[in-house]
Design a protein that fits this description.
The chain has helices at 37-40, 48-71, 80-110, 114-129, 150-163, 196-201, 204-220, 222-242, 252-302, 304-315, 317-328, 335-344, 348-361, 372-381, 393-404, 407-421; strands at residues 5-9, 16-20, 143-144, 170-174, 179-184, 189-195. It is an alpha+beta fold and 424 residues long. Among the domains are: 1-36, no CATH class; 79-131. It has a four-stranded mixed beta sheet. A two-stranded antiparallel ribbon has the order 1-2. A hairpin with a 6-residue loop joins strand 1 and strand 2 (16-20). Helix 3 (80-110) packs antiparallel against helix 4, helix 3 (80-110) crosses helix 9 and helix 8 (222-242) packs antiparallel against helix 9. It is globular and about 80 Å long. This is M48 family metallopeptidase. It comes from Microtetraspora malaysiensis. InterPro entries: HtpX_protease, Peptidase_M48.
């Protein structure tokens, strides 16, 4: 028994509980104290609208899960939600283009009319505000090049070939307990971001599953599609922010003008907000289908067990690693060695508590992802044989060494964020 292990009687069912004093004491028999309100749940109670949305969200997630278990993920490109989202996003982009053309035409056709100049400049200015935003690679973000990480890039190329995806152009390594794939810029640069803390808590084959899942987004066209539709949503948010309510003050005439302007901008905000909700709703279903599709590819490449293992870590060890890094950053010392020791001593009882809590509270990465425990169930349902990519211990150690080159910088960034948070 470890020094931190304690035994007590459950106050609800009188069963004997063996636990770790560093973590939540709970009863596996009756699930007493399964959830800690101060740690596992938000401090504010959601309103009626949020509760309704949560219920609808849970029903939708369950229905979609039954669908993919029964008939698979299908062909994402033929999903009606994708077609409708593309159509609405195209309308937003065309509207911005029409404002640009109209503004330029007014300036040229009515010059030197003050009326034409005012409305022409306004049209061009609005077109600039509503321009498509395809993202860009932060020039200050340190990236691993092929020369610096040849073994990692070779592994990524193998995964890309198996997934039917284009090769990764840029690999970023950061301190998030996460990973992501995205396409940025007009040239469509494929960027893979690996969160070093998440990578460290995964087993070797689970790391292959993580890479295969992210590469699956490139092969499905999800990253490219979300860049197009997402830029339309970003444009709408820019317009919504620009149409902010004006402060009513000054002379009577100024107040009257401000009231009229607020009424007009209020109508614009309402219209734009409605379009945002429609676009996000249309992409909601497809985004979750895309996650299942990427999980399916990862299960074929790395094995269903490995994918389910990643999901289990996202439920159990990932939140714990996030909390540990946040607190450890204030204490100093070797951040990564401390995290490895903390994860090595992470008790099974706490892992099981978090698994049960995830099933009860539909834990997910974010709203674009299905609940993580449902994704794990989907992964293990895939009837795939042996993994198509298996790496040797030596190869994975060399990949780890290449990623560890960024470990010191990332540890300093985590510590800097933790110190900055003290002054917010």
């Amino acid at each position: 028994m470890t020094p931190s292990a304690i035994i007590q009687e459950c106050p609800q069912c009188a069963a004997s509980i063996t636990g770790d004093s560093r973590f939540v004491m709970w009863c596996p028999e009756c699930e007493w104290n399964l959830s800690r309100p101060d740690r596992d749940r938000p401090s504010t109670r959601p309103g009626p609208l949020a509760r309704l949305r949560n219920r609808l969200d849970a029903r939708f997630a369950a229905d979609l899960h039954r669908q993919v278990l029964g008939s698979g993920v299908g062909t994402p490109s033929r999903d009606p939600g994708r077609i409708a989202a593309y159509a609405l996003a195209s309308a937003v982009h065309l509207f911005a283009l029409s404002m640009l053309v109209g503004g330029v035409w007014l300036l040229v056709a009515t010059w030197p009319s003050p009326f034409g100049a005012v409305f022409g400049v306004a049209g061009v200015g609005f077109a600039y505000l509503a321009r498509p935003r395809f993202g860009r690679l932060d020039g200050d973000a340190p990236a691993l090049t092929r020369q610096e990480a040849p073994v990692l890039y070779d592994l990524l190329d193998r995964v890309a070939r198996e997934a039917g995806a284009p090769p990764v152009d840029v690999v970023l390594v950061d301190g998030e307990v996460n990973a992501s794939a995205r396409t940025v810029g007009l040239r469509g640069t494929h960027v893979l971001t690996i969160g070093l803390p998440l990578w460290q808590i995964l087993e070797p084959q689970e790391r292959i599953a993580l890479l295969a899942h992210e590469m699956g987004h490139f092969s499905n066209g999800d990253a490219r599609r979300m860049r197009y539709v997402g830029s339309a949503i970003a444009t709408l948010y820019e317009i919504h922010g620009a149409a902010a309510r004006q402060r009513v003050r000054g002379s009577l005439g100024a107040i009257a003008i401000a009231i009229v302007v607020n009424i007009l901008t209020g109508l614009i905000r309402l219209l734009v907000l409605g379009l945002i909700m429609i676009l996000e709703s249309l992409t909601y279903r497809e985004s979750q289908l895309a996650e299942y599709a990427a999980d399916d590819r990862a299960a074929r490449i790395a094995s269903p067990v490995a994918v389910a293992g990643v999901m289990d870590k996202l439920i159990t060890k990932a939140p714990a690693a996030d909390r540990h890094l946040e607190s450890a950053a204030h204490r100093g010392g070797d951040l990564w060695e401390g995290m490895r020791e903390y994860m090595a001593g992470f008790p099974e009882a706490e892992e099981e508590r978090l698994r049960r809590l995830a099933r009860l509270e539909r834990v997910r990465v974010d709203a674009t992802h299905p609940p993580t425990h449902l994704r794990a169930a989907f992964a293990v349902s895939r009837a795939y044989g042996a993994a198509t990519i298996v790496v040797t211990d030596d190869e994975m150690e060399r990949v780890q060494a290449e990623l560890d080159a960024a470990a010191g910088r990332i540890a300093r960034e985590i510590a800097d964020r933790a110190r900055a948070a003290l002054y917010e």
